[in-house]
């Protein structure tokens, strides 16, 4: 039987008594001036993170659980330097199967298997045998597929929830397909292959077991460089994959952030690469704005200030709008 | 009977004798150190512009034609400071109906009436009565419609030819319609209205009688500010147009360049404004790249350096590509 | 009889009991996990804003007052996430005429009628009949004049107080007049007209009934675009106003922020527009620095760090300086 | 008897025979592949510079004149890589007193002695004895005064002619005086001292004997750093000059470019420094625009594109304007 | 007998009772609404700064100590606007010789006399007599040497501790020496002279008696401008110092920040200046990263986010690394 | 017997008759308005490139040689749009072994085998067995070694000559070694491995058979992404290479341009990566400045304007300097 959370970090206020389950995101042993050890912790759940400190019984607590484990915590909320900080009285490990994962990581509201099936159905319609073989190599890699279905698309900003990578990829593929039909002279096979693969490096750039964060590899190499290597590894398994086509596919990954300043070593230099970047920007931005708007108090006509986009957004009729869009991104009647 | 051009400016080399028709783009009387007058001219045709100078018989020549007139010119091409410069022996005005306008201004390859009909058909499908009335006010304004069918979308860079504004607008409306269907929660009526109207200020920002240039009003106010005034003028003729809706429509025009740095006094603050900006960017960029690629020598796999986009573009198979896209922008089989 | 404020928001510290009048700047009904409603509020006075929350009796309190109303509040100050937050026990509406407006909005220390008279006296000295007619059209519009006398020049940074727009406008006109006399070849009539009208859009960009904030129209269109429309509306009422002069006047408004990055769709392209921008920058900056210096503790020789201007300012002799400038901006003995 | 120029560099076209006097701006001996020497030269006059090459009799020519000398040149104009290049047949030195200096360096149209007298008259009105002593130390330094009267204010862009530094300084002082009167609380003595001294480093940053160029010291240190040293040198000669006042004066020089990006190690941090920067910007910009407009063909309503300011300028009525401003900068009726 | 600190500011938490010695960094008298005075203070020690307020007995306390004095304080820690603030009950001056200076200002762990000796030994190896004389003039200036041994290299970021300037200078000189040997054609004497003198202005830019802050002169002029003046003052005492060499040395100081945006009025224009800038950047950056890493909790593999460098740093094996580098910067076995 | 060049492109002037060998860099067939074909060509040698056109006998000429071939050309130099253009009368292929390669591509003045031996000797001193195995895998790959010895380090700017990559790599490794010794706590093995491998991707990014240009792969992926793949390919051949160490090595390649804006998807996040970037910047910059200075006319004290570095460089004593640095980069006596 799984245990439900009673109280989420975002709701905890100073002076509150807390008895709940969290992810142990960080654990460090420090030493007071008198030489005695104490623990500084970071606890997490799907609503955010919170610093915590534990003064007593620390050796046993430290041994009880490691970073990434779930822990049952008793404590009292205080404030330290302007943030809530929990003073922990007791801490004990909780088995992963005893918790509801959805309490710790936000998850897409859409069905992952259906999204994957839809995505694979689109890739079935490609004509280029090399590109079909490349995508098939990914689809037949069970480890990859499992990661790809679960991974978020980002740590924050857009599609930052389990399944977000698949949701973002599917939405982009469907949108790219429409745009390829709108403009003549676009290599649809290439564009859709790029749309499927552009962010595959995120399955290794991000860790998302119990909370979303960057992996060491992700911080050192970026999902662009990881993705190119993953594609190169698959291409090596396919006979007679043309070198020039390989370079074109990798270029789509390399350039999909549009400009060097956002992490693309080269800017888009083909029509398909230009379109892929634009489609990525649209889909990421629309999702980001929606997620941001969703955090606003009902009834407000303007959101708070969005730091990265540097503006407030206008919500002319938030209630009516919500009913008008029941299917979410990419939900165009299918 | 109209007279055809024999030689275009882009092809004229030093030492060549020239006898042909040009637009008189600029005409200035200057004075030599000995006190005698001479004329400095700029001549144009659809392939570009060329400086010219006339030493003799200048009073009569100066009186014969004004800026914007067509002129029959006899002269010899020389070089001055690294550019071709024509030394003119004689110059005479030619009536506008005696020339082939297509020699002087590039024109869309698509049919303006068909494009307009297609555009109006789409706007017929809107549901919001105020927005329908607003678009109807534009469609029933014959002066505007005539300008809107003829205007280019830019002086250079993208859709810089007669009919380019209509072609760009239609392509955007069709693409915006697809994207509105892809994402739930988008106000299709508002987005399509913005797509139709976002660049209407260009009919006054640009002059395109015999060559494309900015008007004084265009340089002083920008098509964004002119467009807002044109929309305000039409809204004034419509009873009970809601103020808040008027602000929303104007916001689409105001923000469609996306960031202040590109001339939008405010960035997009609604979902529709964000999408409109993105669609504009896609359509302008795809057209710009195609126009740029089209100027390259057949067979090259890389274009020259594009100064504004700061890169070379890759043309994997130019010949094959051209056949693959017979319908042009927005030509998705309808 | 009006009620005076006893305690301003900027002075309220945690744990303090509060019983005072505030503007109800925001009011939102939310729901606790147990399904019961609670109110989240933002309260304001001239010293700033403060979040507040109300747990009991919320239905009656919510019905008692709307956003923008004055309210008598009983509560206790606490801290939440590093800021003071008031827990409200009771809340009741207070009629607007029972409060001292100066407690809620800072106001210019100068006399609005005198400033307006001075400004109109200067515009009387213009020679160009069209420009005189344009300014007269504004002066004879009572609604406009009432707004123009009351409006602030900004939400923050410079002249952010009632009457600030008029004070800033007058100071600029007087300074522009001196500069026009200094440089030959400047069209004084045009420059002064631009100085009077450059910020008129702010009467609609900003709301300043009980606190200063942006209006929806202001956020969507900017005071530059609003101002151009206001000028266009007045010009439409004047017979034979030359189109080219209208474009020149609008250009002054359009370009007065100097560069696109600060919201001007076009940069200044005439001598008058260049000067207007410079005069605006001087007057805004000097006022901003003075307001900033005025918030510093007496005796300090350096101000705190000014985030926007990215520096500390030096105050060599604050006391002596204050006596030296009793008349404020533009107070050059007249 | 001085010899007048017949032909200026800006007017020389390819294939023209030239026999005229120039400044020998650069002279380098190079060696052909066959081992024989040839000379590459740069010749100058007030209209610009021109490359030249000399194939024969080079040893004698090389010995005849050094860089900075005036030379009588016979040659033929050709083109090399898009620019005019003179092939020199003969070259002989001309004594400096045999030429008209005004042919080689543009000069202010105003009287230097009158400007200086006006400037000194203003500085006489200062009250602070230390600042008066500082300015007096400059005025009594005959070497400095001679340089200050002759120096240009820049190599190009604004006041780039002999006497330009004095003209620019006087205009700024007069304008600063007006602005100091407009705003209360400004230390007029300090501001005017800064206005007089802000660019004194230019007398050593620029060389302007026969053509305007940077000196080695100017390129290595900048006029800001040179100016601070010049002021420090004068202050050392004055008894009891307060250290804090010295820092304030130097700060005005250090910060007068407004931002680090334009060469000020520190931005303006006092009201006087902010004003000094603004006044400098106004005066430099107005002069730059006027000089730029003056190079345009009579009758044009728009200038060419100004690369540094990134725009075209509008000249509504160039002819009328010229008559309206006979006195030039700072010519406010005195 | 000196008194040791018991509690450092960085460790003080809300609600704690404090009785300890601090530096009185700022002291301002303010007035409550009831007219009674109170004191707002800033207290400091080597771990940071803290705001404090004193309500009672303020006149006596204010008279007891001035800014920069050491004070014995009794009080209680509270929170105000998210930061710890001390409510002071009593405050009394403590003589400077009664405290341990190291409690108030962090100090280099290396021996200043040894570092200076090492540095002077290197400068002994120069060959250019003028440069040797210049350095000797500094070394024989006892006041300078005392300051140079004590000054920090910055207020924060890198080498922000007593002796940091000397440590940074020595490390740069040793590193510059190696690089001069690596590349041929480098003027070693000039480069090393620049390395020794590049930051000498910091002895006057920074105040570091009881805490590190900028001096008025430092904020108004910057250490670059101050340093140039100090070098000029020394050069004036040396017979026959060549002007061109003086300009070269000053250029090294002027340009050592590399670009105008970081406060260099001119960028490096000689090989030596380019190298000096690079060596400065390496040494400052390596020290900054080390100092930053040193503040992290033991065991972490990633540091927190470094705001100025905009990244997290990776610490693959912090423990092992520490043992591997016992000698610190420049400790290459000598 | 190889044929020597008689005339280099940089020396060809208009109207000259040319009969010499060039590389055929580009060849395109175009069609005149009369339907007849003509050839547009680009010819190259080590001094630059030149456009050419051929009007007659084009079919045979086109068949005679392909892009990249050496060709014997007869023609006459003209000018077209400000550049020299050759009108070709005849064109015939020349076998590659009949030309002196040094006429067509500039080459390092140092001995490639000696440089390689020196480099391998340094890598022999590493201790980490995995990194030694990685470098050994490169050294034992004969194809790679051959390319690595021949490749330039860039198309232009620095080390843009055959052997330049090896010369740059060796110089960096030697310099990095010194810096690793200067600072404690640096992982020398890792830093030197990064120095050896940071630019290996350039052997595929650049084509340098007969002239230096980017390859398709280079333009699409960048040498950073190519280099990471090359390292990944070698690591795959080594047993038990730790994943974390692989990520560290790849990070050195990924981040060596220092900032995203210069093409690094991630900035340096380890001490070794920070140092590698700095060493690369020093070595590239010093070489670039020297190459730039070397193109200046002997005797000049200032170079022309360097567009990318945006400054002139000072050459105090060019002649003396040249003798002082006989060994070139990295030539520190070994």
UniProtKB/TrEMBL annotation, chains A, B, C, D, E, F:
Molecular-function GO terms, alphabetical: hydrolase activity; nucleic acid binding
Signal sequence interval, chain numbering: none
Domain HD/PDEase: residue ranges: 161-294
Keyword annotations of the record: Hydrolase
Lineage: Bacteria, Pseudomonadati, Thermodesulfobacteriota, Desulfobacteria, Desulfobacterales
Protein name: HD domain-containing protein
CDD domains: HDc, YhaM_OBF_like
InterPro entries documented for this protein: HD/PDEase_dom (IPR003607), HD_domain (IPR006674), HDIG_dom (IPR006675), NA-bd_OB-fold (IPR012340), NA-bd_OB_tRNA (IPR004365), YhaM_exoribonuc/phosphodiest (IPR050798)
GO biological-process terms attached to the record: rRNA 3'-end processing
């Amino acid at each position: 039987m799984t245990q439900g959370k009673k109280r989420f970090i975002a709701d905890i206020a100073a002076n509150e008594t807390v008895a709940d389950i969290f992810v142990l995101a960080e654990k460090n042993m420090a030493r007071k001036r008198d030489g005695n050890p104490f623990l500084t912790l970071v606890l997490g759940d799907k609503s955010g993170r919170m610093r915590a400190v534990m003064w007593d019984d620390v050796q046993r607590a430290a041994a009880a659980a490691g970073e990434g484990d779930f822990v049952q915590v008793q404590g009292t909320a205080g404030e330290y330097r302007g943030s809530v900080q929990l003073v922990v009285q007791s801490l004990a490990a909780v088995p992963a199967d005893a918790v509801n994962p959805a309490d710790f990581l936000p998850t897409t509201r859409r069905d992952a298997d259906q999204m994957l099936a839809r995505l694979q159905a689109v890739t079935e319609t490609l004509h280029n045998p090399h590109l079909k073989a490349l995508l098939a190599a990914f689809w037949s890699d069970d480890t990859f597929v499992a990661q790809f279905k679960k991974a978020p698309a980002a740590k924050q900003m857009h599609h930052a929830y389990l399944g977000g990578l698949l949701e973002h990829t599917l939405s982009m593929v469907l949108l790219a397909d429409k745009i390829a039909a709108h403009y003549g002279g676009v290599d649809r096979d290439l564009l859709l292959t790029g749309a499927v693969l552009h962010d595959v490096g995120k399955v290794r750039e991000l860790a998302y077991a119990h909370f979303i964060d960057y992996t060491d590899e992700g911080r050192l190499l970026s999902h662009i460089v990881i993705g190119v290597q993953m594609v190169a590894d698959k291409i090596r398994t396919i006979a007679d994959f043309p070198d020039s086509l390989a370079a074109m596919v990798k270029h789509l990954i390399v350039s999909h952030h549009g400009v060097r300043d956002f992490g693309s070593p080269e800017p888009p230099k083909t029509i398909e690469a230009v379109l892929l970047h634009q489609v990525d920007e649209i889909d990421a931005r629309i999702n980001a704005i929606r997620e941001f708007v969703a955090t606003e108090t009902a009834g407000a006509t303007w959101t708070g200030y969005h730091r990265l986009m540097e503006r407030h957004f206008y919500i002319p009729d938030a209630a009516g709008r919500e009913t008008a869009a029941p299917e979410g991104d990419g939900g165009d009647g299918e």
